[in-house]
Specification:
single chain; alpha/beta
Amino acid sequence: MAITKENSIIGFVGTGVMGKSMAGHLLKAGYQVLVFNRTKARAEELIQMGAVWQDTVAELAARSNVIITMVGYPKDVEQVYFGKDGIISHAKSGSYLVDMTTSAPALAKKIYDESLAKGLYALDAPVSGGDIGAKEARLAIMVGGDEAVFDALVPIFNFVGKNVILQGQAGAGQHTKMCNQIAIASTMIGVCEAIAYAKMAGLKPETVLKSIESGAAGSFSLTNLAPRMLVNNFAPGFYVKHFIKDMTIALASAQEMGLLTPGLELAKSLYDKLAEQGDENSGTQALIKLYLEENQ
């Protein structure tokens, strides 16, 4: 049975840069939305829009039949789902659980297994598209889990994303997101090096971008993040610290499979350096700082 506005109460845990916009789209679509965030102030805008604040994850889980989580790190996911006041202990039988955090594939499988044992239905559904994609409701949503559960939740996914694909069983969504982050990691290096090269060659980087973003070099990073680099706008659409987290998960998963990922290893080493310099809370486009500093 599809989840509709009439038969659902959505609990949304995590109203940060991405989660706030996602929950906002569901409110605008007419869903009843309950919210919880570790810092209530970050949920105030949603509360003003009609979301109902919950004091604990346990309260939210008990009062919802669809629970969506969008938190920071695997340890946060672990706490939110398996803690004493966590979702699995307090959700009503038959509820749908959707973790949209980028997290470890093995943790997604654990959530699925534990949920099934409690009569709950879980999907891992990480997203890509950054703050822009979240604001414009055109995120790519990569889903792992059972097809019947996916089909029931597609109406909700369609209000926050434009590219919603079931990739396979539990954990497949997280594995797909790792593929996404691996591709982005090396791309970000290329974007920074292209801009640094343009500057050193005496070109106008803005004009260079107009030529190359629509050609074979085109990418989300080149179109959306390179312009921010050029005006020193390092506000986070996606945090450096969260990208490092994702790359750490991807490296561990690749190593388990015996896969060599030298591009990913290089990117992580550069982002580690950037974080050590104080930019862990900057957007990923702040990587350009390393190149401009090295070439001044």
